[in-house]
Structure formats: C-alpha cells, structure tokens
Amino acid sequence: MLWDKSLETGIAAIDEQHKELFRQIDNLLDAGRENRFGETLDFLGKYIVKHFTDEQKMHTTSKYPRATEHKNYHDAYVTLFNGLKNKYTKEGPTLTNKMAINKSVVGWLKDHILVHDKEFATYYSQSKA
Ligand SMILES: [Fe+2]
Predict the structure, then answer these.
(1) How much distance in Å is there from the Cα of 54 to the middle of ligand 1?
(2) Ligand 1 centroid vs 7 CA: distance in angstroms?
(3) Ranges of each domain in the chain
(4) One digit per residue, pLDDT tens: the chain, 129 residues?
(5) Contact (Cβ atoms closer than 8 angstroms) between residue 22 and residue 2
(6) How far is the CA of 100 from the centre of ligand 1 (A)?
(7) What is the distance in A from the centroid of ligand 1 to the CA of 88?
(8) CA-derived radius of gyration, the chain
(9) How far is CA 53 from the centre of its chain?
(10) What is the value of pTM for the model shown?
(11) Which of 19, 44, 49, 99 is the most buried (most CB within 10 A)?
C-alpha cells in the first residue's frame, strides 16, 4: 500500500478518499502486469475528478481563503494526468509511459497532500474551533 500515516490530514472524509486513490494506484501498478492498465487509468481518472470536486466543496463551505489557488493545483493535475493517459492510449504500455505515469501520479499526489491538503486541514480544524 502506497498510503501511509504521514499522509493523514485528520479530516476523515478526505483521508478515506486519499486511501481509495492510493488503492487505485496500487491497482494500476498491478494492472500493468495483467494488461488492464488502460481500464484502470480510466477509473483512476474519474475518481481523481470526483475526489477533487468533493475537496473543493469543503473549501467553499468552510470559506477557505486559498480555495482558488488549491483548485488551480487540482486542475493542473487533471491536465497532467490526462496528458499521460492520452500518451499511454496512443503509444501503449511502453516502459517509459508506465514509469512516467507511476512517477507523476504518485509523486505529485503525495506532495500535494503533504503540503496543500494538510494546510487546508489545519485551517479547517481551526475554523471549527
Ligand atoms: Fe487537494
């Protein structure tokens, strides 16, 4: 499992979705061996959008001052992900494509959670106090 406790934000709804995201990425790594990589990429792409939308709703309802900036990060990730997905669809499961997807998808997400989602979690817990 790629998820670990250091990624916990303390907001249960967000943490559950993050765990599911990493489960899907685990599937993606396995799917590479089973030739279901394309299918799993499709699912992951949809789940990412759903997750970001849910997070952004929380930003809006809690009047998070950095909501726009945070949404820009999400949008950039969706663009990056779709670019890699298209490249994969066109060129197939080359080692380069798989490595690029694994590295970018996992690396970006971890950095994003550790910095930006945790920043929101701090704001969120203080705004409720
Ligand atoms: Fe986020």
Answers:
(1) 9
(2) 12
(3) 22-128
(4) 678 999 999 999 999 999 999 988 888 777 655 567 788 888 889 999 999 999 999 999 999 999 999 999 999 999 999 999 999 888 877 888 878 887 888 888 999 999 999 999 999 999 876
(5) yes
(6) 21
(7) 25
(8) 15
(9) 11
(10) 0.88
(11) 44
Structure tokens at 9: 């934000």
Question: What are all long-range contacts of 120-123, with beta carbons under 8 Å and residues at least 24 apart?
Answer: 120/9, 120/55, 120/58, 120/59, 120/64, 120/66, 120/70, 121/9, 121/10, 121/11, 121/14, 123/62, 123/64, 123/65, 123/66
Say which amino acid occupies 115. V
- The topology under which CATH files domain 22-128 is Four Helix Bundle (Hemerythrin (Met), subunit A) (1.20.120)
